[in-house]
Design goal:
- With about 230 residues, the protein is of the alpha+beta class.
- It folds into 2 domains: about 140 residues, Jelly Rolls; about 80 residues, Winged helix-like DNA-binding domain superfamily/Winged helix DNA-binding domain (Arc Repressor Mutant, subunit A, Orthogonal Bundle), CATH 1.10.10.10.
- Helix content is about 45%, strand content about 25%.
- The protein contains 9 helices and 10 strands.
- The protein is globular and about 55 Å long.
């Protein structure tokens, strides 16, 4: 059931035939980004799309009071920034690196040319956009109707999935800062700290510095109430 709250488009690249993959790879230009470096910002005009080779990226919006709401966390193997080009609009959010990252850029012209050349890639993009809309709708419903404790449990479960790799299936450590985690949950940092301490006392998580490890996923899922 957690899958309805997790958007992941790694299949966009993985499911492509070899010829289509080569089209994308030939158009990619990679760049190293430092921690907390912006990739694009809300309201700017898109010039291409991005592919995350290594690292983590947060996608967020800032309300009129200056409060940040994290919408999504991208992990390696995912494309992002393409919906603005497909809708011919400016970016509706901001993306920022959460750690040192390697990101590939594909220009708008190259991207549109590849879409003309690859019916498979076009179809997968439509699938991805539909899935993203469904996930965002589910997350908005949670933010509107769930308690902070429920939202915190759900956010930890989502992050556990995002930080899981083939090399770390057993020992998954969430390294998102407390401020970013609070912004993802939609609460104050002090409130989050109390909830994390409660979870720790209930033996649901372990905390080592800024690292969080889930120790009772089943109970957290029950608390998240989904």
């Amino acid at each position: 059931m957690i899958s309805k709250f997790i958007f992941n488009n790694q299949y966009l690249f993985n499911d492509l035939p070899e010829y289509d993959k080569n089209l994308l790879m030939a158009a990619m230009k990679s760049k190293n980004y430092r921690n907390h470096e912006a990739i694009f910002t809300d309201g700017t005009k898109p010039t291409g799309i991005y592919y995350l080779n290594e690292g983590k990226i947060k996608k967020y919006k800032v309300d009129n009071d200056g409060r940040e709401q994290i919408i999504y966390i991208y992990s390696s193997g995912e494309f992002f920034g393409y919906s603005a080009i497909l809708s011919n609009e400016t970016y509706g959010d901001t993306t920022l690196t959460l750690e040192n990252s390697v990101i590939s850029f594909i220009s708008k012209d190259d991207f549109l040319h590849i879409l003309d050349q690859s019916s498979v890639f076009s179809r997968l993009l439509l699938k991805s956009l539909s899935h993203e809309f469904s996930v965002m709708a589910n997350l908005m419903a949670v933010l509107s109707h769930r308690t902070v404790r429920e939202r915190a449990a759900l956010s930890l479960l989502i992050l556990h999935d995002k930080y899981t790799t083939s090399e770390s299936m057993e020992n998954v450590f969430i390294t998102l800062s407390r401020i970013d985690l609070a912004n993802m949950v939609g609460t104050a940092r002090e409130t989050l700290a109390r909830i994390l301490n409660d979870f720790k006392q209930e033996n649901l998580i372990k905390i080592e510095g800024r690292k969080i490890q889930l120790t009772n996923i089943e109970q957290l899922a029950r608390i998240a109430n989904f």
